[in-house]
Amino acid sequence: MTIVASNAPASWREHLRNLPLPVVGAGLAAALLLSLTLAVTIGPVDLSMLTVWQIAFAKLTGTTGDWTGAQENIVWMLRFPRVLLAAVVGAGLAAVGVAMQAVVRNPLADPYVLGISSGASVGAVLVLGTGALGSLGIYAVSAGAFAGAIMSFTLVFLIAVAGGQLSPLRLVLAGMACGYSLAGLTSLIVLTSENRELARTAMEWMLGSLGGAAWPDLGLPALVLLLGTLWLSLSGRALNALLVGDDTARTLGVDVGRLRVTLFIVLSLLTGVMVAVSGAIGFVGLVIPHVVRMLVGTDHRRVLPVSVLVGAIFLVWVDVVARMAFAPIELPVGVITALLGGPFFVWMLVSQRWRSRDAS
Which of 34, 84, 193, 288 has the fewest CB atoms in 10 Å of its CB? Predict the structure, then answer.
């Protein structure tokens, strides 16, 4: 059975799909810049957009201006790193979601379908519960999470390729098996630990949080995002070919086995880095690609760059809601994405009037 959408009139969508990609990209880039600025101004201390950029310009050029030291610290040391990290993580998760859905040919695939987030959770919880990697200071949890993600990636890969060629089905099954096993291991560590605060701390991390972000947290994720999305963008034609099946892709000159292995490595590293700095934030890589495809079509040469920008904008505003909706209590970002993700799919199923037909 194949899922297809109805042919309901959507002239504005057709107009959007016909817009040149540079025009769409420029509009979204402007929206992202505005979102970043507004997000920095929002908080217990009111700040104007002009003050925000004056402080940013002064810090970059070494000049001074007419603002208080407290305002400077709030903008430069607290809000700017957090807002930028939200943009980087949102962009990264959206990019991984787009490519993952093509790799496994499953519209419900997301960055965590390979069990990488479960591996990262094991690493993070081990650090939190045992105090391992203490010499790394504030980066200990992120380092443990990344190590766990790499461990999970290696395990899933070895299982998926054992005894046969790497295929979407084997990849998904291996990811699910490892994911459930590692999630169980995380629960075991938490429940048997003598650290009474571990359950609360681990829960906050596993739901995703951008609190405490600092400038040093941005370097590696930004670099990995840049290189990963650049490589994925150059592979847009190959991703399009994967969607129509391996046999058709081979007739188009695509080395399917090699491409899938390379994509698996790139996507795993992207996911591992993003999860290490933000925790396991769900639904971004699942929802954003669907929204973008509804707006700009299915060509990955358009879907990928647009998804990166939309994902960045989306998570910036989700983080604003997470820290302001119940202030002074701050919610984990993953709670907000989960609350938005479920209703979105219900809305999509109802409004698009999906119907099934036999595949020919």
Answer: 34
